[in-house]
Design brief:
Length: 236
């Protein structure tokens, strides 16, 4: 959601989340997959007045697969977490970076076109116990196919060989909005690089934990996972 706060606004919140807005009053905010059906956008003016705008969040029908079997017991081993935890910490730190990019103001484009092999929000439920849902969209155009930046931004993480993500690229688009690209066969940018919408930044691959060549593209605003399809519209 892109918007502009009323003139003279000193503070704006979405629910309990404090919003950042630029000198022109422009802001970006978004809702997680499991957000409540209603939230309130509030602006506090310089004279102390409060302006409230109620928001209704339209429900969506997610692809839920119900399995009549229990989930496989057990979790990650200590040996695996010794490797994994530093990776998770680096990803967390990268997503917190604010580079001042204004890519969030653009209309996003698809980083690559091809068969969609996994959709955002899909989930398995094991005898009533929900598993984690798919947090991005998977595009399978073939191994080595180039992909591009969906919007302007700054590279905040570019690493190879992560245990799950493989070769991973994260781009900050500003206002807390960022893109992550997983399983690349090759990356063409490095941390700190400014990228432009449509710029070749990597090639599709199957690095990390992947069953075949595809690009997993995820979008997050702060801690909210977002459906990239809502930013791009249907693939043409």
């Amino acid at each position: 959601m892109r918007g502009t706060v009323p003139g003279g606004t000193r503070e704006a919140t979405l629910g309990e989340e404090k919003l950042a807005f630029d000198d022109e009053g422009r802001f970006f905010a978004a809702f997680d997959r499991d957000a409540p059906a209603a939230m309130t956008l509030t602006a506090r003016l310089a004279d102390g007045r409060m302006i409230e705008s109620p928001l209704t969040i339209a429900p969506r029908a997610w692809n839920i697969e119900r399995i009549n079997a229990a989930r496989t017991p057990g979790g990650a081993s200590a040996a695996f977490m010794k490797i994994r935890q530093p990776e998770l910490d680096a990803i967390w730190d990268a997503r917190l970076k604010d580079t001042g990019s204004t890519g969030w103001t653009q209309d996003f484009i698809w980083p690559v076109t091809g068969r969609i092999s996994g959709r955002f929000g899909s989930q398995r439920v094991y005898r009533g116990e929900p598993g984690s849902y798919h947090s991005g969209i998977d595009i399978a155009p073939g191994n080595g196919v180039p992909y591009v930046a969906p919007a302007d931004g700054v590279v905040v993480l570019a690493v190879e060989g992560y245990s799950l993500e493989g070769n991973l690229l994260i781009i900050d688009h500003g206002q807390g909005l960022n893109s992550a690209f997983l399983h690349s066969s090759r990356l063409y940018v490095k941390e700190g690089d400014r990228v432009r919408q449509g710029q070749h930044i990597g090639d599709v691959g199957s690095s990390g934990r992947a069953t075949g060549p595809h690009l997993h593209w995820s979008l997050k605003w702060r801690n909210a996972r977002l459906d990239p399809l809502l930013f791009t519209g249907p693939m043409r």
